[in-house]
Design goal:
single chain, 592 residues, alpha+beta, BirA Bifunctional Protein, domain 2, 4 domains, globular, binds serine
């Protein structure tokens, strides 16, 4: 079965059970300052799981391209991909276990035709606050799941929150016990190095997790875990892994989404895909797919934040191509059209982005080719005893030569670099903006803190003020908020004068002083857009949308959160406005 068939079967299955299909969030969340990437389907659902009403109702379904930068180095085995699609369905205080588990079962066994014998389920064994999940046990049993296919695990495996186990959850974080489904690849022989007995969470490769139902019913408070006002369901299932299960082949790189890329790499390199651990072809296919997707959604390689991760992906892929003894430009050019087609057919990106993606990738390769050659020469001519963390840092600093590439190349020469030492040197040198974002690399929590909320409302005021002063040509091209400042990208062919920037700042401050109310309403998307409500990604919002109004000054389509009145924001100053090239500009403001 093809990935696209499974995706559409899933959406239809839940749609016919009363769920509204919503568009995926962009891979870079527009208003979430503490996480670099959308890393799960539930990320855009957090406010609604906490109790805010969703514009599309209480039953939601989608397919969410998700990126996990912490998995980059895992890529190369048969199951990790740093970008994947997460099929998700949610009950927002509506149905619970007795509907969810039978639906999951029906979808897997009837719609996808997976044999019940090969499916295993896991449950939460309980802790001091939340009891052992006997209710879900009974439901699985009633569906015909045999006792020896049901396993209990502690919180480390069967509790889900963005922060991890209950003790790791900060106050305000939501979570709950889970029930996961695993597929057994019966041809894979258990490796006793992973333990005497195989079981669903064993790492030997015989079992693969294909779905996770989180019974999101708790919130952490000062007192411990307490029940949320409503019981929610948050389901996530990895599309690529589901295809692998349906194919009964544990190698996710053999699914249709990857096979055309692997074929293109085979053709251009003249080598055969071997499907072995850390196969360079897997790394190339995975990294290029994620990179092309990000570029198509507007990210550019750079030395900061998401742009840095994108750069790392392309450079890591280019180095692997070198290991294949092939030409990166040739291989990338051959693969990119298939990636753009796959994801534009799925509605996540525009087919017209193809030329742009090719151009950005080639420009990056040109830049990197020079750095790579210089770096390799430097490594060649340096005394082997002098190659250490400081040396790796110097190469990174002067040439942008990635640490992990130095590490990999030297590992071949039996040199082990001291990662902690490199991190220490790096930490001393890293620039301010990266310091501010360091926590984000851990995939952190969505920070809906007081200051970022103020900046979010101020961003709406800025958007409208730019429009008023510079004219209707301007439109939003991006936004990023940290607790230190707000940043807003916009399209504008000219260069605003100092007076215009001053005027924009003074409009914002007047609106703040006026203490305008900020009001949210749920509206029909089409009507809202026709009436002139501002929207960043109009096509990325569902049919019913939440609109935030600031007095009668600004109206914007947005998921929030915002302050209740502008007065609480305090005075703002614009401290930078710069060109990003090709008709785009970036403006920064902060609290005075
Ligand atoms: N939030 C859960 C996960 O990421 C289920 O969607 O696994």
């Amino acid at each position: 079965m093809k990935a696209s068939e499974i995706r559409s079967k899933y959406l239809k299955f839940f749609e016919s059970r009363g769920h509204a299909v919503i568009p995926a969030a962009p891979i870079i969340p527009p208003d979430d300052p503490t996480t670099l990437f959308t890393s799960s389907g539930m990320q855009q659902m957090v406010p609604y799981l906490k109790g805010e009403p969703h514009s599309m109702g209480k039953r939601i379904v989608d397919s969410q391209p998700s990126f996990r930068s912490e998995d980059i180095e895992e890529v190369g085995d048969n199951r990790h991909t740093c970008m994947f699609e997460m099929l998700g369905n949610w009950s927002l205080g509506d149905y619970f276990k007795k509907e969810q588990l039978p639906w999951v079962w029906e979808f897997l066994t009837k719609e996808l035709g997976l044999s019940p014998d090969k499916l295993y389920v896991t449950l939460f064994e309980g802790n001091d606050f939340v009891e052992k999940d006997l209710e879900a046990y009974k439901i699985w049993q009633s569906l015909g799941v045999k006792d020896d296919h049901i396993f209990y695990y502690p919180g480390k495996k069967n509790w889900w929150s963005r922060a991890g186990t209950p003790d790791q959850m900060p106050v305000g974080e939501i979570g709950g016990p889970t029930s996961e489904v695993f597929f057994e690849f019966t041809d894979v022989v258990h490796d006793s190095k992973y333990g005497d007995k195989c079981h669903p969470n064993c790492d030997c490769g015989r079992f693969m997790e294909i779905g996770n139902s989180v019974f999101m019913a708790y919130v952490k408070t000062e007192k411990g875990l307490e029940p949320l006002p409503a019981q929610n369901v948050d389901f996530g299932g990895g599309l690529e892994r589901l295809v692998a299960a349906v194919n009964n082949d544990p190698d996710v790189f053999k699914i249709d989404m990857f096979s055309s890329l692997i074929a293109a790499i085979e053709k251009s390199s003249g080598k055969k895909y071997e499907g072995v651990y850390m196969s360079p072809m897997r790394v190339v296919a995975d990294h290029l797919r994620a990179a092309a997707f990000m570029i198509a959604q507007g990210t550019e390689p750079s030395n900061k934040l998401q742009g840095y991760i994108l750069r790392r992906l392309l450079r890591r892929a280019a180095v692997r191509v070198r290991l294949l003894g092939a030409d990166a430009k040739l291989i990338f050019k051959e693969c990119i059209p298939a990636i753009v087609k796959e994801y534009s057919d799925a509605g996540f990106i525009d087919a017209s982005s193809l030329d742009h993606v090719q151009a950005v990738v080639i420009a990056e390769l040109d830049k990197f080719g020079k750095a790579l050659d210089k770096g390799l020469k430097e490594i060649e001519r340096t005394d082997i005893n002098k190659i250490d963390a400081q040396f790796a840092f110097n190469l990174y600093q002067s040439l942008g030569f990635p640490y992990e590439i130095t590490r990999d190349l030297l590992a071949e020469k039996n040199i082990t670099l001291d990662q902690a030492e490199f991190d220490k040197i790096f930490a001393i040198h890293k620039e301010g903006s990266r310091t501010a974002s360091a926590g984000m690399f851990k995939g952190g929590l969505a920070d809906q803190g007081e200051i970022t909320t103020k900046y979010h409302t101020a961003t709406h005021l800025l958007h409208q003020a730019l429009y008023d002063v510079l004219g209707s040509e301007i439109s939003q091209a991006g936004s990023n908020i940290t607790s230190e400042r707000l940043r807003f990208d916009y399209t504008y062919s000219g260069k605003p004068t100092a007076e215009q920037i001053k005027e924009i700042g003074s409009i914002i401050n007047t609106k703040i002083k006026a203490d305008l109310p900020v009001v949210k309403t749920i509206e029909d998307k089409k009507m809202a857009l026709e009436s002139g409500v501002k929207a960043f990604f109009a096509d990325k919002y569902p049919d019913k949308v939440s609109v935030y109004r600031i007095g009668d000054y600004s109206r914007e389509l947005c998921g929030g959160p915002h302050v209740e009145r502008t007065g609480v924001i305090g005075a703002i100053e614009i401290y930078k406005d710069e060109s990003l090239g090709s008709g785009k500009r970036r403006i920064y403001a902060r609290l005075k």
